[in-house]
Amino acid sequence: MEFEYAEALKRLPEQFFAKLVKTTQALMKEGHDVINLGQGNPDQPTPEFIVKELQEASENPKFHKYSPFQGYPFLKEAIADFYQKEYQVDIDPTTEVAILFGAKTGLVEISQCLLNENDKVLVPDPGYPDYMSGIALANASPIDMPLLKENSFLPDYQKITDADLNDSKLMFLNYPNNPTAATATKEFFDETIQIANKHHICVVHDFAYGAIGFDGNKPQSFLQSKGAKDVGVEVYTLSKTFNMAGWRVAFAVGNPSVIKALELIQDHYYVSIFGAIQKAAKTALDNGQVAIEELNEVYQRRRDAFLTNAEKIGWYGGTASGSFFVWMPTPKGFSSEQFAELLLERAHVVVAPGNGFGESGEGYVRIGLLDNEVRLQEACERIEKLRLFK
Fold first, then answer.
1. Dihedral of CA 309/125/16/298: which sign?
2. Counting beta carbons within 10 angstroms of the beta carbon of residue 53, is it exposed (0 to 12), middle (13 to 18) or buried (19 or more)?
3. What is the pLDDT of residues 221-241, one digit of tens each?
4. Residue 257: its pLDDT value, please?
5. How far apart are CA 255 and CA 145, in angstroms?
6. Closest Cα partner for 323 from 192, 211, 172, 187?
7. Taking all residues of the chain, what is their mean pLDDT, rounded to a whole number?
8. HSE of 287, CA atoms in CB hemisphere, 13 A
9. Could you tell me which residues come within 8 angstroms of residue 21 by beta carbon, excluding any fewer than 6 positions away?
10. Running DSSP on this structure, what letter comes out for residue 343?
11. Cβ distance 144 to 358 under 8 Å?
């Protein structure tokens, strides 16, 4: 017997990268040496001091019971302390913090929290695909904000009609950006807040790569701009900052009404995160500055190695200001998908085609800096043999 899916599931977008993953796995199963630069999964282990805290905390019988639905106060207080220490932003741990089962969960949930059927949402194009998943589940309608090189891969608010701005209830932003690896300025966030106030739009800033900036430049938090908490929230994950992707722990900070909505929906979905993981997350936030600096140094070396070797083969024009990605243009005559397929089939190098992130991603591929410098150099050497750039 086969049962029909709910309409909400039928609206979900197709997972664009499923075909790429399947082809990659098939090549590896055949014994080919595949260099996978198409993923977004950190390759480094979680720092030892965090793992040890989990091991010790897991022995505490207190954490063997259900956690408080909205998370332990000690983690919320650590989050508030982290934001004060890192960004000089005051956060009320009792009303301005929601603990999330990974950032992806919160970014999907927030559409269910704030959107009704046919509501409009401003989304970056290209952008993280799961923004669209939450919008589809809410049966709302996206309005693309093209991220173009000529505008430093920032939305140009002057090119969005007043009608679209007035109709939009929600706006997703993400800097450092996935997939373009661009960063945002305080001036851009200041302008965003003015737009949001004028048109009554809730801003959701996805700060997943907030700890990763290059050339000594620390990424700007949306909440560092005056009035940010009046118009929105920032979503932060420990997945990228501390290589804790599998731990599924993140948080939203900012506007109390949005935080309350997120906690309300999670009251019905979950009984919070395992307490020992929350304790380990607190330890990471409290004592992780050295780990953050070391990780930045790793990605800086990898970025420099990739760009240096890409230039050697005549591949220029990459963007890499933050995140652990590089956004590279495709050679003339190739679409994003054609180029990605060619690299996979003939060089056994996996990259993510830009059009998988939206229409404006066409003409680019996303490179993940998720292997060591030697392998990044080898990837460029394999690509050079295809003679695409000279």
1. positive
2. buried
3. 999 999 999 999 999 999 999
4. 98
5. 23
6. 211
7. 95
8. 11
9. none
10. I
11. yes
C-beta of residue 37 within 8 angstroms of C-beta of residue 54 = no
The pLDDT tens digits of the residues spanning 242-252 come to 999 999 999 99
Give 3-state DSSP helix, strand, coil % of the chain, rounded to 5: 50, 15, 35
pTM above 0.90, yes or no: yes
Question: In degrees to the nearest 10, what's the CA dihedral of 206, 173, 221, 250?
Answer: -10
Taking 80 as the threshold, does the pLDDT of residue 390 lie above it?
no
* The token pair that represents 227 in the structure block: 């009035």
Would you state the torsion angle of the CA atoms of residues 127, 129, 130, 133, taken in this order, to the nearest 10 degrees?
120
The DSSP 8-state label assigned to residue 218 in this structure reads P
Q: Long-range contact list for 191-198, CB < 8 A, 24+ apart?
A: 191/157, 192/157, 192/222, 192/225, 193/225, 193/226, 193/227, 193/228, 193/230, 193/231, 195/157, 195/165, 196/171, 196/231, 196/232, 197/227, 197/230, 197/231, 198/165
d(CA 90, CA 254): 10
Tokens of 355: 């059009």
Residue 147 identity: L
Scanning the structure block, which residue is given the tokens 């140009």?
Answer: 156
Whether the ω angle into residue 179 lies within 30 degrees of 0, i.e. cis, is yes
Query: Given the structure tokens 């935080």, which residue do they identify?
Result: 259
Whole-Å CA distances, 124 to 9, 15, 135, 157: 23, 18, 13, 12
| Dihedral sign (CA 67, 73, 77, 83) | positive
State the pLDDT confidence band at 176, using cuts at 50, 70 and 90.
Answer: very high
Query: What's the first-to-final CA gap in the chain, in angstroms?
Result: 58
Task: Please say if the pLDDT value at position 19 is more than 90.
Answer: no
CA angle 69, 249, 96 (to 5 degrees): 60
Q: Which residues contact 357 (CB under 8 A, 6 or more apart)?
A: 125, 126, 127, 128, 129, 178, 179, 366
